[in-house]
Amino acid sequence: MYHHSGSAVQQAAGFATGLLDPLAPGSVSTSTSDAILFQRCTWCASAMYHRLLCPVCRGSDLRTERSEGTGTVRHSTVVHRNTPAARNVSLVEMAEGFVVRGRVMGPPIGIHSGDRVRLSTAKDPVRGEPVFQLLDEPYRAWR
């Protein structure tokens, strides 16, 4: 199955490969470090994070967009391996519809599914993953 994925000039330069290229024509500037860049399929408008092809329609014509930085924790786990102290690893569903793995600041045991978070820094300096902070203290019954 063939579909149009960009001009020949863009393909020759490598812009239609689906990689995040902040210098590609039509992409968003990355002047601030507190932003997550994601891709959106031009065919079906699905949002995804670091993909070469759209997981929904298998299209390769992906444009780079900037996330507003808010999301919801979908899953969080505490990891004790290969670290001097326990840390959390969370899957965060961003407001734009894609899921990203990152770390939420705070006590690892205090991060739960459904917590609202905001991007704190674009990347953890050691692991290279996004770092989030809790937006508000969620209501916890029966503490």
Structural class: mainly beta
Low-confidence stretches: 1-32
Number of helices: 1
Task: Tell me, rounded to a whole number, the average pLDDT.
Answer: 76
Strand content: 25-35%
Feature tags:
143 residues, 5-stranded mixed β-barrel, mainly beta, 1 helix, disordered N terminus, 8 strands
Structure in words:
With 143 residues, the chain is mainly beta. It is 4% helix and 32% strand. It has one helix and eight strands; from the N terminus they run H-E-E-E-E-E-E-E-E. The strands form two sheets. The chain has a five-stranded mixed β-barrel. Strand 5 and strand 6 form a beta hairpin. The protein is elongated. The chain starts with 7 loop residues before the first helix and ends in a 9-residue tail after the last strand. 20% of the residues are buried.
How are the SSEs placed, and which strands pair?
Layout: H1 8-13, E1 37-41, E2 47-48, E3 62-66, E4 70-79, E5 87-94, E6 99-104, E7 116-121, E8 131-134
Parallel strand pairs: 6-8
Antiparallel strand pairs: 1-2, 1-3, 4-5, 4-7, 5-6, 7-8
Could you provide a short overview of the structure?
The protein has 143 residues and is mostly beta strands. It is built from one helix and eight strands, in the order αββββββββ.
